[in-house]
Write a structure and sequence with these properties.
- It is a single chain.
- This protein is an alpha+beta fold.
- The protein has twelve helices and five strands.
- Strands 4-3-2-1-5 form a five-stranded antiparallel sheet, sandwiched between helices.
- A hairpin with a 5-residue loop joins strand 3 and strand 4.
- Helix 2 crosses helix 3 and helix 8 packs antiparallel against helix 9.
- Pfam families: TPR_9, Transglut_core2.
- This is Tetratricopeptide repeat protein.
């Protein structure tokens, strides 16, 4: 069975509309945004399926022991429930599957990337009343419990194993070769989590040029986030051209050139040349 396929255009447009509204909300709902990412990539997920995933998160939260105690007790309680009793964890093979970035599939399979497993931990723990947040370590996402000065880290990819300071350092060194910096332990905002999820999906698709459909919807959702790097507009335009939508791609290239011209006119000229070449493909 191949990777999921995006929905039909009408459903895809509705998903993008809802994603944009949720991303601009005063308090964006992390689970809702992650489920909309899944709906953008998996045409089999409808609104009833989104609701079922939210209900499953509620059900799991109802199984957390009542107020386990301090941060370490919360971390152990979630590890016992999610990693132990329900078997949520990750393996190296999960990095090769697009479904590992879809919350509804992670809830079904009990497998996924570190960041999506962390979303499960965070959403279940939050519903149960835990002081929980995501921690975006370079190359490996984990969760934190408790106040910054007394935080306890857990690794959902490893069934929720509680980490020591040395463990976190090894994770960072293994991913980047650099030392652990205090700034790496700051709580990640919901939109930053979603941005990283979409970056993972774009990386998955970039390694599979035949799945430019995935690249396209992931970039289009990224552009709906309140802040995004300007180069994403160029990437979006190039994808449109690659997929044969030459007029839209050329228009996007011209718009990006206008942005770039304020700081780098030679680069803007190169982008305008790309726009002309895209239009020429129609002749």
């Amino acid at each position: 069975m191949g990777a999921p396929r995006p929905p039909e255009p009408e459903r895809a447009a509705e998903v993008r509309r809802r994603f944009g509204e949720e991303a601009r909300a005063e308090r964006p709902d992390l689970a809702a945004l992650c489920l909309l990412v899944g709906a953008a990539g998996d045409g089999a997920l409808d609104e009833a399926g989104e609701d079922a995933a939210q209900i499953e998160l509620d059900r799991l939260a109802g199984q957390v022991p009542f107020r386990p105690g301090g941060p370490r007790s919360w971390a152990h309680a979630l590890a016992e429930l999610l990693g132990g009793r329900h078997g949520f964890h990750g393996t190296p093979g999960d990095y090769r599957r697009l479904e590992s970035s879809f919350l509804h599939e992670v809830l079904r399979r009990r497998r996924g990337l570190p960041i999506l497993l962390s979303v499960v931990w965070m959403e279940v723990a939050r519903r149960a009343g835990a002081p929980v947040y995501g921690v975006a370590l370079p190359g490996h996402f984990v969760v934190g419990f408790g106040p910054p000065e007394d935080k306890v880290l857990a690794d959902p990819f490893n069934s929720g194993r509680v980490l020591t300071g040395g463990d976190a350092e090894l994770l960072v060194q293994g991913a980047t070769g650099a030392a652990l910096e205090p700034s790496m332990l700051e709580p990640a905002a919901p939109l930053d989590v979603v941005r990283r999820v979409l970056n993972n999906i774009r990386a998955w698709a970039a390694a599979r040029p035949y799945r430019s459909d995935v690249s396209l919807w992931a970039v289009e959702l990224s552009l709906l986030l309140p802040s995004h790097p300007a180069h994403l507009r160029h990437e979006h335009a190039q994808l449109l051209v690659r997929r044969g939508d030459f007029l839209r791609g050329a228009a996007e290239l011209d718009a990006y050139a206008e942005v770039v011209s304020a700081v780098d006119e030679p680069a803007a000229d190169r982008v305008r040349s790309q726009a002309r070449a895209a239009r020429a493909m129609l002749n």
